[in-house]
């Protein structure tokens, strides 16, 4: 693998690569339910996050940040989900509480992509949100090219302010995605997909 570039390094304008094209043609999420270990080690995760952060970003706002959940922190995070779920669903079944407690245990590594957009910035907030989405997708691609399965999830807790506060988000911050990263128990199957030609027109006048 090429080293991470430093400021001013000359970079190739293109990267013609049949394997990369084929990977993009076949890109597919693996559901968190179908994941197991191992996950990326510390160096691999650093590379995945570096690549996730290498996104188009109008006026270099950097409208996102990453929070890693791994090891025992995943159970602690799950306990927070379970407590919040129990509070909102009094009388919830024990099985439902256990499911919430185990959510972050589905994958060895979960990365929260936190959107910290600045509504007062000259760059429209909409563009900042798009940039956060690009970071999530770059993370999926980097995980895949590193040999790991991944899925971009939000689920209910991405919108629960009490949970988010416990995860260290400020009131202004939002979750762009929780990216679950691990190893697929089995390869996924293709799902129905739109033909790009069905949603593409040629503008002319
Ligand atoms: C912002 C965002 C949030 C998502 N949240 C969920 C989710 O909470 N639950 C879910 O099953 N899929 C969710 N997905 C969809 C999956 O990540 C995935 O795209 C889907 O399973 C289809 O698989 P594919 O990526 O191979 O097309 C989300 C996708 C995006 C872009």
TrEMBL record:
<dbReference type="InterPro" id="IPR026021">
    <property type="entry name" value="YdjA-like"/>
</dbReference>
<dbReference type="InterPro" id="IPR029479">
    <property type="entry name" value="Nitroreductase"/>
</dbReference>
<keyword id="KW-0285">Flavoprotein</keyword>
<keyword id="KW-0520">NAD</keyword>
<dbReference type="Pfam" id="PF00881">
    <property type="entry name" value="Nitroreductase"/>
</dbReference>
<feature type="domain" description="Nitroreductase">
    <location>
        <begin position="25"/>
        <end position="182"/>
    </location>
</feature>
<protein>
    <recommendedName>
        <fullName>Putative NAD(P)H nitroreductase</fullName>
        <ecNumber>1.-.-.-</ecNumber>
    </recommendedName>
</protein>
<dbReference type="InterPro" id="IPR052530">
    <property type="entry name" value="NAD(P)H_nitroreductase"/>
</dbReference>
<comment type="similarity">
    <text>Belongs to the nitroreductase family.</text>
</comment>
<keyword id="KW-0288">FMN</keyword>
<keyword id="KW-0521">NADP</keyword>
<keyword id="KW-0560">Oxidoreductase</keyword>
<dbReference type="InterPro" id="IPR000415">
    <property type="entry name" value="Nitroreductase-like"/>
</dbReference>
